[in-house]
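COMPLEX REQUEST
Ligand: norvaline
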Amino acid sequence: MGVSLSGRSFLKLLDFSTEEINYLLDLSAEFKRMKMAGVPHRYLEGKNVALIFEKTSTRTRCAFEVGAYDLGMGVTYLEPSGSQMGHKESVEDTARVLGRMYDGIEYRGFDQDVVQELADKAGVPVWNGLTDDFHPTQMLADILTVKENFNNDIKGKTLVFMGDARNNVANSLMVVCAKLGMNFVACGPQENMPTEDLVATCREIAAQNGSTITLTSDVAEGVKGAHVIYTDIWVSMGEPDELYKQRIPLMEPYRVTSEVMAMAADDAIFMHCLPSFHDTNTKKGAVVAEKFGITEMEVTDEVFESPASKVFAEAENRMHTIKAVMYATLK
Ligand code: CP
Ligand code: NVA
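STATUS: Structure written out below.
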């Protein structure tokens, strides 16, 4: 029997088998080929999706919108504070209303419990567009990008996440690496490591797939020979800006620099989910520069702009992979 994800929600990768994740990755590559070749794929004409964003977004929103349009679907975007949900109407009631109008619902917000409740009550597939705990659609784009750069040969490769290693992106990378037999290294300060529970779960999965999960605060030890160096912002959405004062000194040793890249494998690539503070060309970047005297945060501009940096290909892959998730679950 082939894999079928029809009717399933996509809330976190722990819910999916290795085979199912590989199926979504293969489907993504196929959609990418079709898009590049100009082959129409309006397979879901007549269906409609709702996109709920309680946090801001560029990539995820655009990926869902373009992916849905390419598949022939209608889209409604509900911006932060643009719906009654949470303010005047419970998550459960919102789910039961939207589930009667839409064929699928994307949700970006805070608690993982909310996206879970939406999925439990909506009666249609719900897709997690980022919560405080996980960012599963990002993972498919990231792994597709790794595959493209390593000739599809990812088993046994090592991905190092540098910095705030207990955030949604780091958690999700640890899960996807474990599921796909890649070694995962969390390289950051002791106080920002993923929870013991999640580490234990991922170690068990990784062992079944022949890979390892390592936590270290030692940069040289963490990045030595790595194939992928990955980082993310130091203060995530939903966290207060006051945290910069504490996070900057804590995270600075884990900035991705040319020296870090030089310790990795010769063919190592740099990845980042974006948005990134690699210069002062943002309001926040400028404020941080003025207040704390640093012009780059999690990655230097030099690495960000280097040939090893695959961040824009990675961003493009958000669209192909999210399209695959919508198609697989709605077809
Ligand atoms: N990587 C990512 O999720 O980007 P957005 O916040 O722009 O959606
Ligand atoms: N950790 C980041 C990811 C953004 C895509 C955040 O949650 O803000």
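REMARKS: The mean pLDDT is 97. The first strand starts at residue 48 and ends at 53.
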